[in-house]
Write a structure and sequence with these properties.
The protein is of the alpha/beta class. It has ten helices and ten strands. Strands 1-2-6-3-7-10-8-9 form an eight-stranded mixed sheet, with helices on both faces. A two-stranded antiparallel sheet has the order 4-5. The structure holds zinc ion. Zinc ion (ZN) binds next to loops.
Length: about 290
């Protein structure tokens, strides 16, 4: 579905370009869109976690609003869209985990993938199905798949009882076993991203640190994001402090990488929160370009 939305935007705004970073377990394309022509490369992604899919329309609406402002010569969040466009090349991957998002929304067709997922959910009867599903369709948590102290993440999650595939918190049998995480990893390796935003829900929190790494400007930008959004700026809790995309990005490049936790309540968040969430996040999305 997201591919259709992106294609529609590309028809209306021919200055957008895009492609595919890889395929999901079920063979769906994982699309990206690029907006801007500046030297500085940036990367925004959403929906690593299935039941956090409200993060996807946040990026898509931003892409649409930014495109429209650029086309008409207008401002976005009090900043000239043309300035943004000339400063940075922004790459957006709105859905890292398309199979998982489809599972939560009840649109995975009957067949082997759906039955397998239902069986995996049965291993964790206390986690609601499908609403508690964060993983990919194989039952692997994609944001515990990156090679940043993965062994430590495994030790923590195993000690919490997440020892087999299921709705969430299973790290996989090794880093990067899952095609969706591998696609994001390779896409990152093939670019020179100066800053990354990974969208998750929920909590209205900005996580900006990995261990003791403190890339240039990362604290200042985190504080700026906090001011424009009203979100809290916090250090990642130890129990979820390893093997995430942000962790790997910071460890590998020593550049600012953020996890933005949108909204308040239980994921999946109700659509009724969307306008408030978008209003809170527009300053972060523009600020990622202006502040780096
Ligand atoms: Zn998440």
């Amino acid at each position: 579905m997201v591919s259709f939305i992106i294609e529609g935007l590309e028809v209306r705004y021919p200055f957008l370009s895009g492609g595919v970073i890889g395929q999901s377990v079920m063979g769906k394309n994982i699309p990206f869109v690029k907006i801007g022509r500046g030297q500085t490369e940036l990367f925004y992604n959403a929906s690593h976690h299935a039941n956090e899919w409200l993060t996807t329309p946040v990026l898509l609406k931003f892409l649409e609003e930014y495109s429209e402002s650029y086309a008409t010569g207008d401002d976005i969040f009090n900043t000239s869209a043309r300035e943004l466009y000339n400063k940075a090349s922004l790459y957006i991957v709105p859905v890292v985990n398309p199979d998982g998002v489809d599972l939560v929304n009840g649109v995975v067709p009957n067949g082997k993938f759906l039955s397998a997922a239902q069986n995996l959910a049965g291993n964790y009867p206390n986690i609601p199905y499908p609403n508690g599903w964060k993983a990919n369709i194989n039952g692997v948590d994609l944001n515990l798949q990156y090679p940043a102290n993965w062994e430590k993440a495994k030790e923590i999650k195993f000690s919490q009882g997440f020892t087999i595939p299921g709705p969430r918190d299973f790290v996989g049998n090794a880093p990067l076993t899952e095609p969706e995480a591998r696609a994001v990893y390779n896409f990152t390796r093939n670019h020179d991203f100066r800053l990354t935003l990974s969208y998750h829900s929920q909590g209205e929190i900005i996580y900006w640190k990995y261990l003791d790494y403190e890339p240039d400007n990362s604290r200042r930008i985190a504080e700026y994001f906090g001011e424009v959004s009203g979100y809290a700026v916090e250090e990642t809790p130890y129990s979820s402090g390893f093997a995430g995309y942000k962790d790997w990005f910071i460890e590998t490049y020593n550049r600012p990488g953020y996890t933005i936790e949108i909204g308040i309540g239980m994921s999946p968040l109700p659509l009724s929160q969307f306008s408030e969430i978008y209003k809170d996040n527009i300053g972060i999305l523009v600020g990622g370009i202006t502040e780096i």
